[in-house]
TrEMBL record:
The gene is purC. Signal peptide: none annotated. GO terms for molecular function: ATP binding; phosphoribosylaminoimidazolesuccinocarboxamide synthase activity. The lineage of its organism: Bacteria, Bacillati, Actinomycetota, Actinomycetes, Micrococcales. Pathway: Purine metabolism; IMP biosynthesis via de novo pathway; 5-amino-1-(5-phospho-D-ribosyl)imidazole-4-carboxamide from 5-amino-1-(5-phospho-D-ribosyl)imidazole-4-carboxylate: step 1/2. GO terms for cellular component: cytoplasm. This is Phosphoribosylaminoimidazole-succinocarboxamide synthase. It comes from Dermacoccus abyssi. Residues 13-265 form the SAICAR synthetase/ADE2 N-terminal domain. GO terms for biological process: 'de novo' IMP biosynthetic process.
Length: 298
């Protein structure tokens, strides 16, 4: 499942859906316990499956875009990055970061109603316990962004929606309030910046860790096509599925007749992606990076 490379001077300790984690080795050859080398692979996941077909340059796009967003949020919250001086084999798609005590939930904020939030709203009139007005439809803009956390499932398992009260029970009232407020503010700041560049950020997932002194720190990735839904602002139209700059393109192909996959809940592994879907997905990731940062991806 993993293509984690062998890196001299580092011990491979874990591989998730997309990222490979390594511990730097000290002079005695022992893994350090204060730093992690975080490597973004070109793997792509959908519907809780890691697909067999990688997306070229995806890891580099995620890493470089996250670094750019960390700079935009530096006055709001510290981040985990120590250095981008990494082994040549993973240059551009890896960062050396602090080892943190990770918060055991996925912090999600939504500015528009879509995806799993829309499905829950249609059933209950609310999302993660947050009551919403009647009459909303796919891609409706919410009056204010809402905080809709989920559990942090093990690889291959499903994240489950949580209410804010459940988050409080899990991590405590003070920490839950801090994470809620920061996650919403990050999405707001992200949309302030992205809207000037023709992109709407419908929702985003943020991960936090805690330093030994109790400081809350941004970790993992930030406002990327993997962690967020990006829509072209000039094409936004509530009441239908939106065109996107993210992996929704892959999800849509997998659930189409063209894939032949059938029921995504069947337990059957998804098929390999065809070349045209791979290239179109890569192009969407690169376009999102270039539109947001104003830089040419190379």
């Amino acid at each position: 499942m993993t293509d984690a490379p062998n890196l001299p001077g580092y011990a491979h300790v874990y591989s998730g859906k997309v990222r490979d984690l390594y511990a730097p080795l000290d002079d005695a050859g022992n893994p350090r316990d204060d730093q992690v080398l975080l490597v973004a692979s070109d793997r792509i996941s959908a519907f809780d499956y890691v697909l067999s077909t990688p997306i070229p340059d995806k890891g580099a796009v995620l890493t470089q875009l996250s670094l750019w967003w960390f700079e935009q949020m530096a006055d709001l919250v510290p981040n985990h990055v120590i250095s981008t001086d990494v082994p040549e084999a993973v240059a551009g798609r890896a960062v050396l970061v602090e080892r943190l005590d990770m918060v055991p939930l996925e912090a999600i904020a939504r500015a528009y109603l879509t995806g799993g939030g829309l499905a829950e709203y249609r059933e209950t009139g609310s999302v993660c316990g947050v009551a919403l007005p009647a009459g909303l439809e796919d891609a409706s803009k919410l009056d204010e962004p809402i905080f809709t956390p989920t559990s942090k499932a093990e690889l291959g398992e499903h994240d489950e929606p949580m209410t804010y009260d459940e988050a409080v029970d899990l991590i405590g009232a003070e920490r839950a309030e801090e994470i809620r407020d920061l996650t919403v503010r990050i999405l707001q700041r992200g949309n302030e910046i992205a809207s000037e560049r023709g992109i709407l950020i419908a929702d985003t997932k943020v991960e936090f860790g805690v330093r030994a002194d109790g400081t809350l720190v941004l970790a993992d990735e930030l406002l990327t096509p993997d962690s967020s839904r990006f829509w072209p602002a000039d094409d936004w139209q509530p009441g239908r599925a939106q065109n996107s700059f993210d992996k929704q393109f892959v999800r849509d192909w997998l659930t189409s007749d063209a894939s032949g996959w059938g029921d995504k809940a069947s337990g059957e592994e998804p098929p390999a992606l065809p070349a045209d879907v791979v290239e179109a997905t890569r192009a969407k990731y690169v376009e999102a990076y270039e539109n947001l940062t104003g830089r040419i991806f190379a």
